Each structure stands twice: as structure tokens, then as C-alpha cells.
Amino acid sequence: MTSARMGRYSLACGGNTRTAMTLYRKNLQLSQELFTVISCFEIALRNSIDGHYTSTLGLDWLKNGSSPKGIFDNSKCRFTQTSINNAVNKLESSYTHFKLVAELGFGFWRYMFAPNQFTICGRTLLRIFPGKPKSTPTFQYNHTFVFNQLADLNDLRNRIAHHEPICFVPGKTLKSTTYARQHYNLILQLFQWMGVDESALLYGLDHILTICNEIDAL
Question: Which pTM does this prediction carry?
């Protein structure tokens, strides 16, 4: 490992090289665990969205919606239309609706809660979160709130994918598992809102809190 990469770990560990290497390895373990949990959440989310819109818009709602004069064929949904068409073209003769669903990434599904996509599809998508708290005059648990929560998870996913550490206070050389714990709790919360038994789904895969405790103890 380069000194530039290890420098932050060394500073966080008071210059102790052995502890710094342990922290580096623990960060890799934590990243692996969180990425797995995010991947499980992504699958549950996209399946829930697809199941909802399949029942309201038809089985080929994605492909039909991105076709000329489809619901996504407008300047306000260009990202959605382009993403679908690119995925369809990539699949070519092997296209099926279910392969298309799997081909589209986390960012695509997040944007189904963006104002234009949410409205064009009927403003019903929040039904996939039957356990979501009711909005109050001072706090709205609406599509914008969900969109922003998913944006936070997408940022974490991208950080891990680009090998950025998640065992520090963001932007500082200070060891902390708060960032990881907060996002882990957010995933569990969204699972619960969806009515997904996260304990059963993640059985044998989730050791996040154990690794966080080990990092805190270094």
C-alpha cells in the first residue's frame, strides 16, 4: 500500500503501523459487509418498485414507457428513458422484462421517486413502504424524503465501490464508525418500512455491528 493511502490510517492510529494496518483491514471488512447489505436492499427495492408498477402499468411498463409517446418520452424524464433504452439495446435478443429490471442500477430506481417520474407514474409509489410513518405538518415523509434517503445510500455505495474509507469522520483523519452505523440503520429502517424481514434476508451475511465494535476498540 502506498504511503499516501496508509497515511490517514497511520495518523488516526497515532503513528502505530500495526494498528493502522489492522484498521485498514477492518475497513475492508466493513466495506464488504455494507456493500453486501446495500446490494440486498437494492434488489428488494427494485423488485418492490417493479411489482407495484407491473400491477398498475403492465408487465412491460419500462420498455413501453421509454418508447416513443411512452410516459418517459419527455424532456423531464430523459435520464429514465435513456437508461431504459440503453439497457434494452445492451440486452438485444436476450431481452426479457426481468433481465431489464436487473440491468438497471441503483441510481435509476432512486429516480423513480424524483418529482417528475413519481408524478408521471401516478404518484402511488410510496405504497411500497406500508410501514412508513405518516407525515405531519412539520415533517413530510413524502417521495422527496425517500429520494434523499436513497441518495445517501447511493453515495455510500459509490464510496465503497471507489475504495474510499468509511471508518473515519467524513473529511477528517479521525477514526469513527458513526457514518457506517447511521447508514446501516437507515437500510434497516427502509427494510422495515417495506415490510421486509431483514433478519431473515441478511441471516449469515450481516456482521456490521461486530466489525464496527472492533474498529471502535482499536
Answer: 0.93
